[in-house]
Amino acid sequence: MAREHYNHGGLLHLKGFDLNLLTVFEMVFLYTSVSRAAAALGTTPSAVSQSLQKLRQHFDDPLFVREGKGISPTALGVCLHEQIARGLSLIDHTLNATLSAKQRRKFVIFAPCCLALQLLPATLAALEPLGAGYELLHYSSYGDANPDTIAESLLTFRKVDVVFSPAAVSAHAVQCHPLASQPLVLVCRDQHPRMTQCCSESQLASERMALLQRANHSDVCCDSLPATRVVLRSDSFISILETVSHSDLLTLLPREVARRYGALFNLRVVETTFSLPTSPLYLTYNKSSLRNSEFRSLLDLLLASMPGASVPSA
Q: Which end of the chain has less Cβ packing within 10 Å, N or C?
């Protein structure tokens, strides 16, 4: 993400200026009285007068002139008020937005698209007891991050709270939970000319396949299969589905994904005379995150929805 470029010269100029003087100016402008402004600020009229004197010297303008029993701003004073009021409004909005963000429980999840299709509905259901007090953010990719180390990198640099991945993450600072492995099924387009009955190992060896390219995982599936000709690898789950639906290629999908989305892409499951590999699933997060009560409550709800998973002591 590109960073906004600030005027560093302006920042250095502000370093020598007491920004509290602007607050004093605004109070005097609003109350049209030094004494009433001092009372509102919880200080003395003398201190307010000294602040105004510094501003007069800085802007080379009286800023306020006496008018009857009160004071009235000069033309420059009115202009200054308009600028200061706009700036203070933005600052106030920023502070309130930051406070609101802290009060709102935000849960950032990283999961490849294929896993997210299965996990996000279950995750939302698990967090439902929190009502409107949380926000779920999901990423399936992250810039130019190395796919082989993305899970560890995202957790190390605190870009996400939880990573769902098909490969275990081994690092001292993280906790990795193995979850239930997903059974895979062989899938083809509905009108495939040869996949009319159960597929044998010899028949599969004569077919062409498309496999989802996932870090540290697609090769495992390929090695667990009979000798096959893989003609397409893609990290895009939708691209695999679309390609298989318009060709005679075969692919492997988690059984639940095939059940949910097979009909949408005119795909069907092909029974096999041999065993297919399974796809492992892991949930990983920073151990230190358990010290945060908000994170722990979210994680407790999430893991409670997954049989066999539990949160260790912080």
A: N
Single-letter amino acid, residue 70: G
Give the span between the Cα atoms of 247 and 92, in whole angstroms. 58
Q: How many other C-beta atoms can be found within 10 angstroms of the C-beta atom of residue 274? A: 12
Bridge partner residues of 230 (DSSP): 209
DSSP-derived secondary structure for 139-168: ES--TT--TTTHHHHHHHTTS-SEEEESS-
CB within 8 Å of 141: residues ≥ 6 apart:
none
Q: Using only the alpha carbons of the chain, give its radius of gyration.
A: 31
Cα 253 to Cα 257: distance, rounded to the nearest angstrom: 6
Please calculate the CA angle 257-262-265 and round it to the nearest 5 degrees: 125
* Both structure tokens of 308: 């066999």
Residues 40-68 have pLDDT tens digits of 889 999 999 999 999 999 889 999 998 88
CB atoms within 10 A of CB 191: 10
Q: Extract the tokens encoding 272.
A: 């096999």
| pTM, to two decimals | 0.59
Residue 127, SS3 per DSSP: helix
Query: Hey, what domains does the chain have and what are their CATH numbers?
Result: 8-98 (1.10.10.10), 105-179+281-305 (3.40.190.10), 182-279 (3.40.190.10)
